């Protein structure tokens, strides 16, 4: 069954793995001149405008309350998660922050211990060890090394917060897909992402300014990659177990490291690739092994 599902989603999966780090590149470029909530607001807003013909075709008044509940909560988590991600990218290296996503499986394991009473197996503990060992290679390339001082850095804190909120967002997205379909979930994700990003933009009182031609082009590419990332994510979630999908999504971390080297001249490529590969192996063991 797993082989069959992978064949069904192979092209969307490849597009998702490539579009996510590509979106990260343009998010990082745009944060040189714009605030994180402004970047998110334009991104979600641009997608919502593009989806307007599809929005008008949906009979929202007759949708079950549960869909609205999960969509609103998912929109809130998504707006927060992506804002923290953009803020982290504005402060840190793409090749360092990208691989941190492998810690998502560790976070899930910790939540499982305290909320569900799920005690990790020996294999699960070994996998956590692999993730920590792999991250040592990544963090050894920064000034703070792999010490407690590292986790006081704002870019690391923001990236961890982004990880937590986007993990919760994924659960809400899956619920909406189960109760409706891929496109309805995509529409809700875009619209409520825009609504909450706009609210946060106003609350934070970030500067709002018109982008120049170059920034406008970057925004168009970002909107395209962001939308492609999410619609392919939804399609993969619909046709594959979420845990398997999350394991395969970790391959984006390798692309992040390469893009960080290529577009932002970030150093220590080989060391980061080794560490990222080890972290991916650990994450896959946790997710596919059930912790």
Please, could you describe this protein's structure?
The structure is a single chain. The protein has one domain (26-289). Helices cover 78% and strands 0% of the residues. The chain is built from 14 helices and no strands. It is globular, with a radius of gyration of 19 Å.
List the helices and strands and how they pair.
Elements: H1 2-8, H2 10-30, H3 36-50, H4 52-55, H5 65-91, H6 94-97, H7 104-115, H8 122-139, H9 154-179, H10 182-204, H11 213-239, H12 242-249, H13 252-264, H14 269-289
Helix pairs in contact: 2-11, 2-13, 3-5, 3-10, 3-11, 5-9, 5-10, 8-14, 9-10, 10-11, 12-14, 13-14
Structure in a nutshell:
With 291 residues, this protein is mainly alpha-helical. The protein has 14 helices and no strands.
């Amino acid at each position: 069954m797993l082989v069959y599902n992978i064949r069904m989603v192979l092209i969307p999966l490849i597009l998702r793995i490539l579009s996510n780090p590509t979106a990260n590149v343009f998010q990082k470029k745009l944060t040189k001149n714009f605030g994180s909530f402004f970047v998110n607001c334009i991104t979600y807003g641009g997608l919502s405008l593009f989806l307007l013909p599809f929005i008008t075709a949906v009979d929202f008044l007759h949708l079950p309350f549960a869909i609205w509940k999960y969509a609103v909560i998912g929109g809130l988590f998504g707006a927060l998660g992506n804002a923290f991600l953009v803020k982290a990218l504005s402060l840190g290296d793409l090749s360092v922050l990208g691989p941190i996503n492998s810690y998502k499986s560790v976070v899930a394991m910790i939540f499982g211990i305290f909320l569900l009473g799920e005690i990790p197996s020996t294999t699960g503990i070994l996998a956590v060890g692999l993730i920590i060992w792999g991250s040592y290679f990544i963090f050894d390339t920064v000034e703070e090394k792999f010490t407690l001082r590292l986790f006081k850095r704002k870019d690391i804190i923001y990236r961890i917060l982004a990880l937590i909120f986007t993990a919760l967002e994924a659960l809400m997205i899956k619920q909406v897909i189960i109760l409706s379909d891929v496109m309805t979930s995509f529409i809700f994700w875009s619209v409520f992402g825009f609504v909450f990003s706009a609210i946060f933009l106003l609350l934070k009182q970030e500067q709002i300014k018109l982008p120049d031609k170059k920034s406008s082009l970057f925004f168009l590419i970002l909107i395209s990659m962001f939308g492609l990332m999410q619609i392919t994510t939804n399609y993969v979630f619909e046709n594959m177990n979420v845990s398997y999908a999350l394991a395969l999504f970790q391959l984006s971390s390798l692309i992040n490291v390469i893009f960080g080297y290529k577009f932002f001249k970030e150093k220590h490529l080989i060391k980061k690739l080794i560490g990222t590969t080890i972290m991916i192996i650990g994450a896959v063991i946790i997710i596919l092994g059930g912790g």
